[in-house]
Each structure stands twice: as structure tokens, then as C-alpha cells.
Specification:
Two copies of one chain form a homodimer. By secondary structure, chain A is of the alpha+beta class. In chain A, 19% of the residues lie in helices and 30% in strands. The first copy, chain A, is built from four helices and seven strands, in the order H-E-H-E-E-E-E-E-E-H-H. Chain A has helices at residues 2-5, 17-20, 88-92, 105-115; strands spanning 14-16, 24-26, 32-42, 48-55, 65-69, 73-76, 81-84. Chain A has a six-stranded mixed beta sheet with strand order 5-4-3-2-7-6. In chain A, a hairpin with a 5-residue loop joins strand 2 and strand 3. The interface between A and B is large, with 42 and 42 residues. Strand 1 (14-16) of chain A pairs antiparallel with strand 3 of chain B, so a sheet runs across the interface.
């Protein structure tokens, strides 16, 4: 994955969804929390609203998938991954993603409320 | 893929990148042109800038991958796919995507110029 191997490459501003899937997620201390499993995109605006992150049991977090509002993830070119600026306590109680078929507006609203996110609002329209 | 099977589902506003990959692309006449292979996302803003679309030799278009500015694609819930509002002549001469490792600002700029796109501008900063 050239973009990830060389994030300073001019192509580095854009990344293929295929490459985001699998990108590492770190906390502010630089500990790897897990990796991005998928991206939830608003069909109309094209805005990535949530990253579905798998925490491999790190920090006592279950090996579940957690949708995290995109703006809570900051891409760090040095680390070649996303840094999530969320307290451990908030992550510990985070809503677990159980799949498209079961998730509607109310579930996404709970995610926004949990993280105090303003984004994802376009998914609430 | 529940969202695609039932686009009127409340979860229908959001779609997983995994599901966009493989979604059909139609022209204004409703002819299937091909399908989305991947999505190019701005790492920072999270905006999907381009859909990489594979035209399976339809309309004499080669079976190549063409990056198309996202705002040229309109999601049609009835068809369960994207409708591309681009003249056949423009598609015929469209830039062919040759992969992340070879694509930088100049290549993306050519795509924007070809389609007269304003979006993708965040990738030009």
C-alpha cells in the first residue's frame, strides 16, 4: 500500500477506502488500540461519518467493532495511522456496532451522544 | 447487503465503504455502465473525493478503472446504485486510474479538469 508506506508521497492526501480498512488506530500515548474495519459514508454528501474500529481487547476493551465519529480520528502521517483523542473511560462504555441491518438513526444518534460528536449530523437528517 | 437491498431502510443514509465497492453505476438512461471498485477519501476531511469506477467495456469504454469526482455520482435509492450524469464523449476520453503509487496532485488535477469538477479541490491543497 504505497500511500501508507510513504504517507509524505504527494498521493498521501487521498487514501483508498481499501487502504483505510486495516489502518492502525492509536491513543494519544501512541499505544495501538486496534484498526479500522470499515468506514460509514453518507451516500449523498460522500462524507465519511464514522470509522468502524476493532479494538483487539486492548485496555480491557472487548474485541468488538465500535463506530467512532470520523472527526475524533486524526491521521498522523508519522505513525501512518489514526490517533483517537478519546478518554479510556469513554471508549470502555462505547456502543458496539452490530451491523447495518440492525442500525438506524436512533443507534447512530446514541453514538453521537456517547462521544459528544457534532459530526454524523448529516446522517441524522 | 441490507442497505442495498432496502435503501429506504433508516440505515440507508449511511453505507459501508465495503458496500459501495461493487455498487452499480448507471447513466441517465438507466443503462448499467459498470460498478464502483473503490473510493478515494481525503484523510483529513474524511470527504470521499472520487469513486474509482470500472466500466466493463460498456459503450466502447475500456475495461479500465476511471476515477470520477464524487459529486458527479448521484445515489438513486430506487435503482440501488449511482447514476453518473456525464456525457458519453467525456467518459470515452476519461483519464484511466493506474494506481496510488503513480498518482499525485497533477494526475488528480487532470481528472478534475476533465470533468470540470470543483470538488477534489481539498485534495489539491
Amino acid at each position: 500500500m504505497p500511500v501508507m508506506q510513504n504517507p509524505d508521497d504527494t498521493a498521501g492526501r487521498l487514501i483508498a477506502a481499501d487502504e483505510v480498512q486495516g489502518t492502525s488506530v492509536y491513543n494519544r500515548a501512541g499505544d495501538k488500540l486496534g484498526s479500522v474495519e470499515d468506514i460509514m459514508i453518507d451516500k449523498i454528501s460522500g462524507k465519511a461519518e464514522y470509522a468502524v474500529v476493532s479494538f483487539g481487547g486492548f485496555l480491557g476493551l472487548g474485541a468488538n467493532e465500535y463506530p467512532i465519529p470520523w472527526e475524533k480520528l486524526t491521521y498522523d502521517t508519522r505513525m501512518g495511522g489514526f490517533v483517537v483523542d478519546i478518554d479510556k473511560r469513554i471508549l470502555e462504555n462505547a456502543p458496539v456496532y452490530t451491523g447495518d441491518s440492525q442500525w438506524g438513526d436512533s443507534e447512530w444518534r446514541k453514538v453521537n451522544q456517547h462521544y459528544g460528536a457534532l459530526a454524523g449530523s448529516s446522517a441524522m437528517r
